[in-house]
Amino acid sequence: MNYIPYILLFFGLVVLFSSFVTVKQGTIAVITVFGKYRRQLRPGLSLKIPLIEQIHSKISIQNRSVELSFQAVTQDQANVYFKAMLLYSVLNHDEETIKNVAFKFVDASNLMQALIRTIEGSIRAYVATQKQANVLAQRNEIVEHVKHQIDQVLESWGYHLQDLQLNDITFDEEIMRSMSRVVASNNLKAAAENEGQALLITKTKGAEADGNAIKIAAAAEREAAQLRGQGIALFRAEVAHGMTKAAQEMEQANLDISVILFTMWTESIKHFAENSDGNVIFLDGSTEGMNKTMKEMMSMQIEKTKK
């Protein structure tokens, strides 16, 4: 029995099916002929020449990330520990870019090693020019410095740095403790200053309130004294007016004016008795004393009339 046709048919089917290539989405296949770059295959179903064209590598054009952990030394000899996340991707889909990605490095591990060491070296070089106190506040500056330094290098490899995030920046334990003490002392200082300002405001407002109260009390006392003076003046004017009218009526009635003085004398003694509130007042209640007082009052009235 002749098996040669079946063998040829089998090899023909193998060759036919091996000419079909499926490339996954987000991936580009690099085709070589006898070890030399020939072309690239886009995602989907493609054909290649069996036994001649070979798939050298499949390059992912999706974003890739890697975590970094390394140490740097500042200008004042402080150890700084970084934890970072690196996001990178193929620069574009151009043929030259794909060739650089496929042939610049032996494999992906060598690429990753070169990429990590390049970024670490760039960060270390920047941190070495800074002091420990400035590193924490310069997170963004460090990222911008790294991007500026390695963009051209990565482009020559066919890659682009999408993002670099410094997730954690720490120092030696002793430095961290001293920094905590500095922060605590600054907080205590700020609290003391705030309390002092609050106390000053309270004292100032209290003094202003006391001053305003004194001003109001003084103004009220001044107004009360003015009203008392006006009342006394009105009282005296009314007394004088009443005495004048009473004297005129006494003269019209052909009566002695001394009766008015006698009445005022008795009214005064009555007022003293009613409002003395237990105090002792000594008065000469004899007839001689009354005559003496009446004569003095009459003499004062006569002198006033002469004037």
Keywords:
single chain, about 300 residues, alpha+beta, Tetrahydropterin Synthase, Chain A, three-stranded antiparallel beta sheet, 8 helices, about 60% helix, rod-shaped, transmembrane helix, Band_7/SPFH_dom_sf, SPFH domain-containing protein, Band_7, membrane
Helices and strands in order:
Elements lengths: L3 H15 L1 E4 L3 E7 L2 E6 L2 E4 L5 E8 L3 E10 L5 E12 L4 H9 L4 H20 L4 H4 L3 H19 L1 E13 L1 H80 L5 H18 L11 H20 L1
Antiparallel strand pairs: 1-4, 2-3, 2-5, 6-7, 7-8
Helix pairs in contact: 3-5
How does this model look, in words?
This protein has 307 residues and is α+β, with helices and mostly antiparallel strands. It folds into 4 domains: 4-60, no CATH class; 64-171, Tetrahydropterin Synthase, Chain A; 173-254; 256-307. Helices cover 60% and strands 21% of the residues. The N and C termini lie far apart (180 Å). 8% of the residues are buried.
